[in-house]
Structure formats: C-alpha cells, structure tokens
Design a protein that fits this description.
heterodimer; A: 215 residues; mainly alpha; Helix Hairpins; 3 helices; 73% helix; 9% strand; B: 105 residues; alpha/beta; Rossmann fold; 4-stranded parallel beta sheet; globular
Chain lengths: 215, 105
C-alpha cells in the first residue's frame, strides 16, 4: 500500500503524524455530528410521516367536500365565489441552524387579522356545502405549513447526513489506514537506516582498531 | 416576506384560493413546467403541487431539494394520486439511514 513516492525522512514522518492526529480528531467530530444529526432526523421523520398522513387525509376529505359543493353550484359561480379572495397568507422565514444545516422555520401572517376570514363570498348565491368545504380546507392549512417546514427540514437533514456519513467513512477506511501505513513504512525505513549505520560504524571501528593495534 | 403557491388542476386546488394562497392552474405537464419555472424565482418559499403533476416534473423538483428555499410539497389532488408524497418521505429516510426503518412496521 505504501507507495514508492513517499520520502522516508524525519520531516515527512512528523508531517504524517500531525496529519494522522488531525484525521483522527476530525473523524471523531464528524462521527459525533453524524450521530446527532441522525437522532434529530429520526425524530423529525416520524413527525413528518404522522403529519403527512394527517394532512393527506384532511385534504382528501376537503376535496370530497368541494366535489359535493360543485354539484350544487355552477362552475362559474364557484369560481367567482372562491377566486376573489380577500384573505392572503404571508410567510416569514427564519433559519434555525442544526449542526450546520439551516432548517427553515415559518411564521404565518395573514392579511386580515381574523384568521377565519375566509369566506370571500356573500351567502346568497353559494351553497352551504361550499362553506363546509372551505372551512375544512382552512383547518388543514396550519398543518400543511407545518408539514412543509418539517418535510423540507427532513430533506435537508438527510442530504447532510449522507454527506457526513461519506466523510466519516472516507476518513475511517481510507485516509486513516493509509496514513498509518505510510507512517509504519517510514518508521521501518528509518530504523533500517539506523541499523545500517550502526553496523557500518561497528565495522569501521573494527577496521580502525585492527590498523592501529594489529588485532 | 414570502407567499405560498399551489400548482394543480383546477378542481383540486381552487379551494386554496379562498384561504389566501396563490393558485396556479395547470392541467398538463407542459403547462405545469412553465408555471413551475416561472414561480421558482424566489417569490414563494413554499410551493404545493399535486402528486399527479409532480410525478411528471420529478427532475425539476429534485433540483430544489438541496436548497433551503423553496420547499416543494406534494399534496393529493382530486384524481391521479400516486402516493408520491409519502414516497418522498421514505426516500429521504432511505437516503439518511441506508434503509427504510420508519415505514416498514
């Protein structure tokens, strides 16, 4: 594994040791980050599922109500009644930083202060089924906005978890073992050099002694 | 300050107009795409789209899944429901965990 390109020098060894220490520390931090993200994500995903089921059921019920309403009214009357609405919904978005992921938090504002001010039509030309339909849809809206918030957060968190997991794995299975291997290679090479020098010196000493004293 | 948009066929979404959301009617994938491109310019931070249309715009919707805004949320319409909304939740769980542990119980 240790490639031939690395210089077996002390300087390189110090550099690699420093790199290893950083990698190990980074690995630990990223692993912690991953675990915490995962914990939050799972809570949120459960909530997401529950909310989605609730909202889908409610919207389907509201749709049924609208179908019912449209049977007793002409399409034109229906359109005029609904499309000229006097209510408007505004969202203010704040971002909540969870482990470096910005997840949105919506706060809802409506144009008219009374949130139930949703009947944009007079009572004369519309059926009471329409009132029910609008009311049922209106009661889902807070949950729908909550769902948007949670679902978006889940998407963002899951992307971040995937990214973090890759980084953790890359460090754990590639970067750290490779650096360890390189360090081992350099250490062995240096030791080998030292032994070579040692034997050479012993040999030289022997030769020098032999020359000087004749034994 | 942002607003909320809804894309879908007329019958599915005209009720939302009464609540003060901006509704955009689209019956075909082509119309939906035009509308979708037009309204993803930062005016809206939440866009609801019916499952029927969403299933035909997957690629365009996917592009926004990593951006903090807008949130594109699938809702069931009167017809053509594909169960894609819940599928989307499953997908993000699978992406994060590696397998689906929330739904298979």
């Amino acid at each position: 594994m240790a490639s031939a390109q690395i210089n077996p020098t002390r300087m390189e060894l110090t550099r690699l040791k420093k790199k290893l220490a950083t990698a190990v520390r980074g690995h630990k931090l990223l692993k912690d980050k991953r675990d915490e993200l995962m914990r939050r994500f799972l809570d949120m995903a459960r909530l997401n599922r529950a909310l989605r089921e609730k909202v889908e059921k409610a919207i389907k019920a509201a749709n049924n109500n609208f179908v019912l309403a449209s049977t007793s009214m002409t399409p034109q009357a229906l359109s005029t009644a609904l499309l000229a609405s006097k209510q408007e919904v505004y969202l203010d978005v704040a971002y909540n930083n969870v482990m470096s992921v910005d997840i949105p938090v919506y706060s809802v504002r409506t144009r008219t202060p009374d949130e139930s001010d949703i009947y944009s039509y007079g009572l004369a030309f519309t059926s009471s089924d329409l009132d029910d339909a609008v009311a049922s849809l209106s009661s889902v809206l807070p949950d729908m906005l909550k769902l948007a918030e949670i679902e978006k957060s889940c998407q963002l968190l899951s992307a971040e978890i995937e990214k973090t997991r890759r980084r953790v794995n890359a460090l754990e299975h590639v970067m750290i073992p490779e650096t360890r291997e390189k360090i081992r290679y350099i250490t062995m090479k240096l030791d080998e050099n030292e032994r070579a020098t040692q034997t050479r010196l012993m040999k030289v000493k022997e030769m020098v002694l032999k020359k000087a004293h004749g034994y | 300050m942002y607003k909320v948009a809804v894309i879908g066929d007329r019958d599915s979404i005209f009720g939302f107009a009464a609540l003060g959301l901006d509704v955009y009617f689209a019956d075909t994938a082509k119309e939906a795409l035009t509308v979708f491109k037009e309204i993803t310019d930062g005016r809206y931070t939440v866009i609801y789209i019916t499952e029927m249309l969403a299933s035909q715009l997957t690629d365009d919707i996917e592009k926004f899944s990593l951006q903090p805004s807008p949130a594109i949320i699938f809702i069931p319409g009167v017809k053509g429901n594909t169960g894609q909304g819940i599928e989307q939740v499953k997908k993000s769980v699978e992406k994060a965990v590696g397998s689906d542990i929330i739904f298979n119980n």
